[in-house]
Amino acid sequence: MRSPILPAVVVLLLAVSPAVAAMTGPAKTEKTALGEVLANEHGMTLYTFKKDGHDKSNCTAKCAEAWPPFIAPADAKPSGHWSIVTRPDGAKQWAFKGKPLYTWKDDHEPGQTTGNGHLNGAWEVARP
Hints:
Blueprint: H1 5-23, E1 28-32, E2 35-39, E3 47-49, H2 62-66, E4 82-86, E5 92-96, E6 99-100, H3 118-121, E7 123-125
Antiparallel strand pairs: 1-2, 3-7, 4-5, 5-6
């Protein structure tokens, strides 16, 4: 007699697998007051900028000083929802679902989201 639990486990694994595969990349998730967000390796919240194009950063100069780009190493490879943007200065930056990612200079502890909503909502936490 087969266990009814085994088919349920298989269905659950199949449902979760695409979500896990989509998240495999340079960032992790962090629980914050705003819910789950993408974060860099230090747990610092990542943000997107509504004025960016698909796989194109428009945050340069003083903007990039306040919103440091989430820089990709030279040997980084795109995978799943993760792509790499070439910035105007030639640096490589991570993007998730085509949206370049940044940290915020005024977030000082992992899980802070003080940049969310800045510039009349142009900056938003990046969500998995």
